[in-house]
Specification:
Blueprint: H1 7-24, E1 29-31, H2 44-51, E2 59-62, E3 76-79, H3 82-87, E4 94-97, E5 107-110, E6 118-121, H4 128-131, E7 136-139
Parallel strand pairs: 1-2
Antiparallel strand pairs: 2-5, 3-4, 3-6, 6-7
Length: 146
Amino acid sequence: MKMGLSIAEGLVLLVTASTMLAACQAADTIVVGGSENWRYGFNYTDWALKHGPIYVNDKLVFKYDPPSETTPPHNVYLLPNLGSFIKCDFNGAKLLANETQGFGSGFEYALVNPWRPLYFASSGGNGADCKDGMMKFFVVPLPRWQ
């Protein structure tokens, strides 16, 4: 009579238990910029470095006022790579939230891929939000191992 698990059975059990544990861990909802929200003139790169770590399944919330006579338009783009992030180059970028989607409860973006750098920026003012207003940051979502 065979006692114990085979290596394959043990691995299946380990993967199943790990998957269940990861699924049970609560994700955080993080307001980008905290009480400053998503606005011109706030250093989001510094905020992201001080706020981390950020994990897979966490949600980033971008909150910003819609355009008005006193508020210029902001948006949220996902830039394709580090070079475009550094240069504030929006060629090939994907619009995630337009000028009005950040109002109220804000726009949520779920982080689903571990270890993949994500580069966020606003193109408002023909790129001035990103270049001069520091409205850009990146995150590398980490897996939850706890």
